[in-house]
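SEQUENCE-TO-STRUCTURE ENTRY
===========================
What this section holds: a protein sequence and its matching fold, both as plain text.
Tokens: labelled as protein backbone structure tokens, with as many entries as the chain has residues.
Question of interest: how does this chain fold, as expressed in backbone structure tokens?
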Amino acid sequence: MRKHRTPEQWQTLVDQQRASGLSAPQFCKQESIGYASFCNWRKRLAAPSTEDSAGSGEASFLDLSSLMGASPSSGPGWNIVLSLGNGVELRLSQNG
């Protein structure tokens, strides 16, 4: 029979696993927890709580303003290459 745990109970289990020094599979076996469920909850609890992004993948933003140079007089001199996989790259360049 499957137990239905609350998010708080899962958080306690995640914390216990981290403190135990056991790997996640070892901990799950010891506690009779489904490994896939444990990993799913560990990921859910580690991410910021955003209900509307469920299932759409993790969206995050990176502030690239620090790449623009320490002072305005130094001028923009950035070149950004994003490797998207399968040999696809997105290159962003700006000439001073």
In short: The radius of gyration is 21 Å. The chain has two domains: 7-53, 63-96.
